[in-house]
Design goal:
The protein has 885 residues and is mostly beta strands. The chain has 4 helices and 62 strands. Strands 3, 4, 6, 7 and 8 form a 5-stranded antiparallel beta sheet that branches. The chain crosses the membrane at residues 685-708.
Length: 885
């Protein structure tokens, strides 16, 4: 352990000796004559020093370490290594540094040392800068200029024993940092430029603060140098964005090192010789926030921009324009001049050239018109730019005779109105005094602003030839002629046309008589007016019709006339709207009437033509069931004429009807609603019933007549005669007191079984399951009887029976009978005709069943099958009858 400590001490001592020694062959004596200076305006520290002048051997390259420290606590603020190359002639060096913290806030110290490879010299003695001190708060730096979008540090120095309460920037409370002792700092980000005045910064009180200016460095660009008078150079540039700095801190300019006298505009003048060929021109722009240099290279002889002409004068119909030059040097230059004529806002540019040009003559100007003329010139050879415009000179040309009038006519009954268009300013060539209208041997004068004339005595033999001329102070125009037709124009059917973009695109078929073109005139269809017109040259059969008087939703009639050597001929007609609008008029006289049980007749009067704002393509009928408000039905009527329409299949209810007009732009012209309560048409059933009954009566009468005429045939086929049975006394045999029984000779019996219900003793029923023709009885006291009986009658009681053979086979059939208390015997029978069989007697037989036993006079009914003649018999058996016994 002791050995290790010994070796360490020896090593450290060797290092100390090495640091203090010079490098082999090199002498490091450290910086000499160190001097520190500072600039509080720019917050800059400047340090100068030099090598030891006694040293003979100096390395080729040295490094000096520079440290800036806070004097109070020796805290390092900044350090930097400075490379220098010593020379035998100059061994003095300079270094500067700008402090972010204002130098007034606290004291700063600076020291240096030299370094070569791994060898360093001793530090130079400290050079200090003393900070500011005061008995009251102070803010530093004072009146600073700061660039926008940068960070800047302010510090507040308090007096002894004072305490910081706040620091504010532009009345905004800021965060602060304690530096040392009574010094505090805050960092502000300059987001926007300052107003024309500065921004206040203070601590504890607005009385203790400073002001800061925030702006931009110079932003000038596009330097261009030229000559105007061939004796000086004029350079101009774009200033870019404003610096937002006050006048004392505004940008200063220098051209090729010489200050520009004009500080308010972006140009600079210097007197130079222009025949020196191509030269470089450098503009330096400087303000507290920065410096900018702009450069341009130019040969001034090729960059001549002439000054504006002076004393420009113009006069006459063919105006001659004269001017003067300010610089006599211009009189020998070959130049080109531009003359600008302004007439009622219309600009006309004309170019002229010549040596030292000072006058030109203007041709083609309109008579009696006012013009304003301006002149600017440039060099024709090596043209650079047009010079400045002269001041304007106004003059008026002389009058000339008017142009010919555009004449047309409008025929209304027996009257003809001669019309002509007023001449424009360019056509009248002066002020129109009057118009002269001549027809036949008559002549009249019309004064402006009237532009029409009525001719009421039209000749019936031939048309009038009418001539119209215009007159001003220079004379009369050429005559305009129009011929009025002898007879009114024959009416032509109109075709529909729809406008677009505020006018009509009109086309028509060619007329073989149109030798001089066509005339198209137009007027509202349903309004009296003065027609407007346009003339179309020969060979063209289309035109774009446009007028300032066109209105939307108004129907116009456009007439196309063929221009002939004689009177104009009506060729075609059109009707249409410039733009169709929804109908504004109302459908009138809407009525609803019930016809029949499910038919309604709707009638109305359409929108009057003068109120129509679009072509009506049809009408739409809306009807609503008022008992069901949500229901709605629509019925379309595809006609453009109002009328009536039957609606069928409408149930009986209460309805509301509305009619609307249908156009290409939608529905409109709603009628007032009409209501209808439909009622059931019961009155119409009476004629139907009467007709039906009459038809039935007629048919029945016809059948009766036919049957009467053929009664014998009908009777033989439908109701043949049947002999009545004959009763004889000998057929009856006595059977006890007051009773007799019919005795019948035995014959071949029918196979009938009379079977009584086993559960009901003494009652006979028909057993369908037994053998055919077997008559049985469940009562053992009554023997079975077989035989055929034509009749079985009781002496004291007779029966009336009917039996239906159709229910014979049904066990549930009921036998009906009526007991007649009469000693005479009567049998009611029903005859039937069985086609294809022999005719026989058949009593009516109803349903049959075994009746319930009666306490007295109970009877059992026995059916008997039909014999070969079709005869059927039905009888009853009393309880006391011999059959039961």
């Amino acid at each position: 352990m002791l050995v290790f400590l010994l070796w360490a001490s020896l090593f450290l001592s060797s290092l100390q000796e090495q640091n203090g020694q010079d490098a082999p062959g090199v002498q490091l004596s450290g910086p000499q004559n160190v001097s520190v200076d500072y600039d509080l305006k720019d917050q800059r520290i400047s340090v100068t020093w030099e090598d030891d002048p006694s040293s003979s051997r100096v390395p080729d390259k040295l490094i000096y370490d520079v440290e800036v420290l806070l004097t109070v606590n020796m805290t390092e603020v900044h350090s930097e290594a400075v490379d220098v190359r010593p020379t035998l002639t100059s061994r003095k060096y300079h270094w500067s540094w700008t402090s972010a913290l204002p130098l007034e806030c606290t004291s700063h110290s600076v020291r240096l040392r030299s370094r070569y490879q791994n060898y360093t010299s001793q530090w130079s003695p400290l050079q200090s800068i003393t900070g500011s001190a005061s008995s009251h708060p102070q803010v530093f730096p004072r009146s600073s200029v700061v660039q926008v979008d940068s960070n800047f540090t302010f510090c507040c120095i308090l007096g002894p024993g004072q305490r910081l309460e706040y620091m504010k920037y532009n009345n905004i409370l800021m965060n602060t940092t304690h530096i040392i002792d009574q010094s505090y700092a805050m960092v502000v980000h300059m987001q926007s430029p300052s107003p024309p005045s500065c921004i206040n910064v203070y601590c504890n009180s607005p009385l203790y603060g400073t002001c800061v200016y925030v702006g931009y460095p110079p932003g000038d660009r596009n330097l261009v140098c030229e000559t105007r008078d061939l004796e000086s150079v004029e350079c101009h540039w774009d200033t870019g964005r404003p610096t937002n700095l006050t006048k004392q801190r505004m940008t200063r300019y220098h051209l090729n090192g010489r200050a520009c006298p004009n500080r308010t505009v972006s140009n600079c003048y210097q007197t130079v010789r222009v025949d020196q060929g191509e030269r470089n021109w450098t503009l330096t722009a400087r303000n507290p926030l920065g410096t900018l240099e702009l450069r341009d290279t130019a040969d001034l002889k090729k960059r001549v921009r002439l000054l504006a002409p002076m004393e420009v004068v113009a006069s006459g119909v063919n105006a001659s324009v004269q001017w003067q030059w300010e610089r006599p040097q211009y009189h020998i230059l070959l130049m080109v001049c531009q003359v600008q004529l302004n007439h009622s806002g219309h600009i006309d540019m004309r170019n002229y050239s010549g040596i030292g040009l000072r006058s030109v003559v203007l041709h083609g100007l309109a008579p009696a018109q006012t013009y304003t003329v301006q002149v600017c010139c440039g060099l024709k050879q090596h043209f650079w730019k047009w010079g400045d415009w002269s001041e304007g000179s106004t003059f008026k040309t002389e009058e000339d005779i008017p142009e010919a009038l555009d004449v047309w006519m409008q025929i209304e009954g027996n009257q003809t109105i001669i019309l002509w268009k007023p001449l424009t300013v360019n056509q009248s060539h002066g002020q129109i005094k009057d118009y002269e209208v001549t027809w036949g041997r008559q002549e009249t004068i019309v004064h402006p602003p009237q532009n029409d004339f009525l001719i009421s005595d039209r000749s019936t033999g031939e048309g009038h030839r009418v001539t119209v001329t215009a007159k001003n102070s220079a004379g009369s125009s050429l005559p305009s002629i129009i011929i009025i037709p002898r007879l009114p124009h024959r009416s032509k059917s109109s075709m529909k046309i729809v406008g677009s973009d505020g006018g009509f695109n009109l086309s028509w078929s060619a007329s073989p008589n149109a030798s001089c073109g066509y005339v198209v005139d137009w007027c509202p269809t349903h309004t009296k007016c003065r027609v407007e017109w346009v003339k179309v040259p020969a060979g063209i059969t289309r035109a774009r019709i446009h007028s300032a008087s066109f209105e939307e939703g108004v129907r116009y009639t456009l007439s196309i006339f063929a221009c002939t050597p004689g009177a104009p001929e009506l060729w075609e007609r059109r009707e249409g709207y410039v733009k169709e609008c929804l109908p504004k008029g109302q459908i009138q006289r809407l009525a609803a009437e019930q016809h029949g049980s499910d038919t309604v007749l709707i009638s109305w009067t359409g929108i009057p033509p003068e109120n129509q704002t679009a072509f009506i393509h049809g009408y739409i009928i809306y009807y609503f069931d008022t008992s069901h408000p949500s229901s709605m039905r629509i019925f379309n009527v595809t006609t453009d004429e109002p009328g009536a329409k039957n609606l069928t299949g409408i149930p009986v209810s209460s309805y509301r009807f509305i009619v609307k007009a249908l156009t290409s732009v939608g529905e409109g012209g709603d009628s007032s609603p009409v209501f209808l309560q439909m009622n059931p048409q019961t009155d119409q059933l009476i004629p139907v019933i009467i007709i039906s009954l009459g038809s039935a009566a007629c048919l029945l009468t016809l059948v009766t007549i036919l049957c009467y005429r053929n009664w014998k045939c009908v009777k033989e086929n439908l109701h043949p005669e049947i002999p009545k049975p004959v009763w004889k006394e000998e057929w009856l045999t006595p059977l006890g007191t007051g009773r007799q029984i019919l005795y019948v000779d035995p014959c071949q019996p029918s196979e009938i079984d009379i079977v009584c219900n086993r559960e009901q003793s003494g009652e006979a029923v028909l057993d369908n399951n037994a053998g055919k023709g077997a008559l049985t009885n469940t009562n053992s006291d009554v023997p079975a009887l077989h035989g055929y009986y034509n009749q079985l009658l009781s002496k004291t009681t007779s029966g009336h029976f009917t039996f239906s053979p159709h229910t014979m086979g049904s066990p549930s059939s009921q036998l009906s009978g009526t007991v007649i208390q009469n000693p005479s015997y009567n049998l009611e029978v029903q005859a039937s005709l069985d086609m294809g069989q022999s005719v026989g007697y058949e009593p009516d037989m109803n349903s049959f069943s075994c009746p319930n036993p009666e306490p007295h006079n109970a009877m059992s009914y026995v059916p008997v099958e039909t014999d070969s003649w079709g005869y059927k018999f039905q009888y009853h058996i009393e309880d006391s009858s011999p059959l039961q016994e």
